[in-house]
């Protein structure tokens, strides 16, 4: 190979590599859905440098759409809560990598990374419900469960889980006697639950989770709330210690009191009965 051929080969490789490097755009990685109570965000990484990302989403098999806030973005998240309105449909999203505005590139197709399928109704994570415990006039424990608010609105009104799941929304309740390890689980349809079978006056601890049997597998049950315990009844002394114990204790106290009185009376008599002798007169003999 002569010197001219070697020079041509080196120049070709230099400019060819430089051009390829200039037109290279990295694909997004770890494209995942994050959804909690229907607040749905598409996330990916790493944070772009000298390029941007655009999100395209669609129902499976339908035309792609774009969120105006997620076009040529330098962020790594896109809020699609208000775009995924058909909650029982499955969606997919593409994260495209695009050059900066004004930066020309000779690309036939933009590189992109596709997400997995996502169905808001089935896949959003259901959070921990709030509840309170009340003891009614019959000394029965009553649980009041509050339906959680979602990130969705309709006609200006904040929607709850009950608005979305309707009759499919149920609740699981796990309870146990305070300081006991044995637990009982029950499933209820209502937000108010009276527990007539529990021992009155005893303290019980409860945890609650939303339960939607129309969802798949482990996603049927939402997150469990922190435990809350009912107050224990303050019993009388007889209920607390027993009649026999209180009787014996009373006798002991009375006996000690009588002994103390006898000792005091005896001491008083001795003090009162004491008379000093006459002083002897001393006669001085001159």
Automatic annotation (TrEMBL):
The residues covered by the Interferon/interleukin receptor domain are 124-230
* Residues annotated as domain Fibronectin type-III: 8-98
Q: Where are the transmembrane segments?
A: 241-268
Which keywords does the record carry? Blood coagulation, Disulfide bond, Glycoprotein, Hemostasis, Lipoprotein, Membrane, Palmitate, Signal, Transmembrane, Transmembrane helix
Which stretches are annotated as coiled coil?
A: none
How would you describe this protein's topology in the membrane?
Answer: Single-pass type I membrane protein
Q: Which GO biological process annotations does it have?
A: blood coagulation
> Looking at the record's lineage, which domain of life comes first?
Eukaryota
The stretch of residues making up the signal peptide is 1-20
The GO terms this record gives for MF are: cytokine receptor activity
What is a single cellular component term in the Gene Ontology annotation? plasma membrane
Q: Please name the InterPro entries in this protein's record.
A: FN3_dom, FN3_sf, Ig-like_fold, Interferon/interleukin_rcp_dom, Tissue_factor, Type-II_Cytokine-TF_Rcpt
Q: What is its main location?
A: membrane
Q: Where in the cell is it found?
A: Membrane
Q: Its function? A: Initiates blood coagulation by forming a complex with circulating factor VII or VIIa. The [TF:VIIa] complex activates factors IX or X by specific limited proteolysis. TF plays a role in normal hemostasis by initiating the cell-surface assembly and propagation of the coagulation protease cascade.
PANTHER family in the record, alphabetically? Answer: INTERFERON/INTERLEUKIN RECEPTOR (PTHR20859), TISSUE FACTOR (PTHR20859:SF22)
Family, per entry: Belongs to the tissue factor family.
Instruction: Give the record's subunit note.
Output: Interacts with HSPE; the interaction, inhibited by heparin, promotes the generation of activated factor X and activates coagulation in the presence of activated factor VII.
Its recorded name reads Tissue factor
